[in-house]
Structure formats: C-alpha cells, structure tokens
Amino acid sequence: MTSTTTYQPGNSPAGLFKARSWGEWVDHHSRTFFIAPAVVLILIFAIFPTFYSIVFALSRVRFRATGLQFRFVWFDNFIAQFTGNEQAHFLGRLTGMSFVGWIFALAMTALAIWWLYRSWQNRTHWIFLVGRLISAAMFIFIGWILALTLLSGNPWGTMMTTLFYVIVGCSIQFVIGTGLAFLCSQPISGKNFFRVLFFIPLMITPLGVGYAFKMVLDITKGPLQPLWDAIGLQDWAWSTDAWAARWFVILGDSWQWIPFIFIVMLAALENVSRDQVEAAQVDGASSVQIFREITWPQIVPVAVTVILIRMIEAFKIVDLPNIMTSGGPGIATESMTLHSYFLWRANDMGSSAAVAYLLLILTVVVCASFFNYVVLGQLRRAK
Predict the structure, then answer these.
(1) Which is nearest to 151 in space by CA: 192, 112, 194, 100?
(2) Nearest by Cα to 243 from 168, 346, 316, 323
(3) So what's the pLDDT on residue 260?
(4) Looking at the predicted structure, is the pLDDT value of residue 356 above 60?
(5) Does the chain have fewer CB atoms within 10 Å around its N or its C terminus?
(6) Do 224 and 216 contact (CB within 8 A), yes or no?
C-alpha cells in the first residue's frame, strides 16, 4: 500500500517559518505592548497639558463666544513679571538700595565669582561648569533682589515670599522634626503614644489646617483670646502685620509637615547600628560626640533626601496663605503658586502660566543646586 498526503499551503516550510517568526516578534515586543497603554495615558494627561500650558504662557488669551482666542506674544508674559507694574508684584519694589544692601549684594556677587573661579581652577568639566554658572547666576540674582527689598526697607514680592517659606520653613521643620525623632528613638516610657500623637497632623488636609489655625489665632473670638488680652494684644491683628502673617503661615505649615520629617527621621535613627553606639559609650564618648561621629553620618543620606522632598513640596504652598490671609496684607503672604492662581481667576491665562513656569525654573535651579552641592557633598563626607 502506498500512502498519499494532501498538500496544504499552511503546512509548507515557508508558512511555518512565517507563523513562527510572527510569534517570536510578538514575544520579543511584548514589553512594548504591555507598557503602551500607560505611555498613551501619560501622553494624554501629562505631556499634552504641559505643552498646551506653554502655548498659554507664550500667548495673550481672550475669551470669545466661540472659544479661546490666542495671540502669540512670545516672551512678553515673562518679561512683564520683571518690568512695569507686575515687577512690584513678582520681585518687589526695587527703588533705592541702602548702604547695607550694597555691601550685601557686592559680597554675594564676589562670593559667587570666587566659587566659580575655584571650580575653574579645579578643572571642572565644562558641563558641570555650566551648571555651576546657572546656580551662581541665580544666587547673585536672589542676593540683589534681597538687597534691594528687605535690606533697603522696600517690600518684596511673591518670589522672595516663596523662598522665605522654603528656606525658613523647611529649616525649622527639619530641626524640630529631627529633634522629636531623636527623643522618640531613646528608651523612654510612653514613646509609642508620642509617635502616634506627633503623626496625627499629617493626616489632616491642608484646608482643615488652614481653617483651624485661622480660628485658633483669632484675636477676638479664638481660644487664645485670653492669652492675647493678658499680654496686651487685644487691639492687635496679626493678619494686618506682614511679618506676623508670614510667621503664622509658617507656623501652620510646620505643624502639618513636621510629622512627615519626624516619621522619616525616626525610621533612619532606629536603623543606626546599636553596636557602634554602645562601643562608643563604653569608650567614654559623650552624647554629642556619638551623634556627630556615629549617628549623623549614618542618617545623613535620609536627612538630605527628606529635606529635598520637603523643599519641592514647599515651593508649591498655596492652601494656607489662601485660607489664612488670602495672600494679605497686600501681597505679603502671597506665594508664587497663589499669585498664579489669582491671575488665572482674573482670566489672565498667559500671565498665570508664565508665573507657573517661572516657579518651575526657580524650583529646578534651587533644588538641583541643593542636591549637587549639599546632598552629594554630605554623602561624600559621610563616606
């Protein structure tokens, strides 16, 4: 008997090779297929609004019955923040520098130039030298604005108010949060209760914190009203005093964010090697020496990281100034984010977007400088 086989095109060597190649191609690109939906969502909900906001920042936007009308003005919205009427709002009143202001501004400029010269002498790579040039330019710019405003008796604008919240607020929060974490890491009774107690403010929304502090600090009806009367401040309103309002905003912001630093630093302190601490105690080292030589080098990576995270968040502060003071008195407590929000509410979309991008530039330069020259420096010394 002889067997016969029927020819089928799909069973040909070419067909089998083609099917196998197609399956191998799908397997090879499976990671792309799985990640594609996430990439598409990011493009739709993140990247597209970013580019659209750039169009707003470079345009004058008018509302019409048929929709939005764009007229490209390029960088006019950005330039307007540094000149004309908007300059006093964004930078402050830059009229007449005092003698102290001149000394401070020239000292800051000389310090930045000396730092760049040292970097050039150390044969720093040109890419890093460009980064240092940008950081030095921002350092000099902020120094001159500070000299023209605070040190010359002139009010400053929203940019310096934002930096005040970031630098002063984050410093206070880190010191207090780390101190509380250090106390709760010691063998004391009831420390678990205090851990929970210190963590509670972080679970409250900024809206609730703002209204709570506004009511607590009310001079006439708040729970501290007897205290204000006792110290003779019954006729004083903190919301009409620029510096008092700024400090009370920092107080509310610190009450909310100290728990974040506390819980992170507590975890870092509890991971410190106990063997090294006990060996230092046996050798007669003091508590200060143990903290400086053993504890701090081990927690410094966590410390600088938590400061960096907190700085990035502090640049975006908007809830507390808006609720507690509405940016007042005048614009004394108005942050750049709140400034952008007020412009948006006034239908000035172009200027609002420009202020938002100026905040982005300020945040990137300050935080990148802090990371490169403080964080990495501390990590190198810790090693």
Answers:
(1) 100
(2) 168
(3) 92
(4) yes
(5) N
(6) yes
pLDDT of residue 122: 80
Closest CA to 357 of 39, 52, 48, 42: 52
- Which parts of the chain fold into alpha helices (H)? 13-28, 30-42, 48-57, 76-79, 85-90, 99-121, 126-148, 158-164, 170-184, 191-199, 206-216, 225-230, 242-270, 274-282, 287-290, 296-314, 319-324, 336-345, 349-370, 376-382
Please tell me the number of Cα atoms within 13 Å of 118 on its side-chain side: 7
Provide the pLDDT for residue 7: 45
Amino acid in position 146: L
Q: 170 falls in which pLDDT band (50, 70, 90)?
A: very high
Ordered by where they begin, the domains of the chain are 1-57 (no CATH), 155-382 (1.10.3720.10)
258, 183 Cβ separation under 8 angstroms: no
pLDDT of residue 5: 47
- Name the DSSP class of 69: E
Q: Give the type of residue at 61.
A: V
Task: Quick: pLDDT tens for 193-228.
Answer: 888 888 888 888 888 888 888 888 887 777 877 887
pLDDT at position 251 is 93
Torsion, Cα of 21, 27, 32, 37 (10° steps):
110
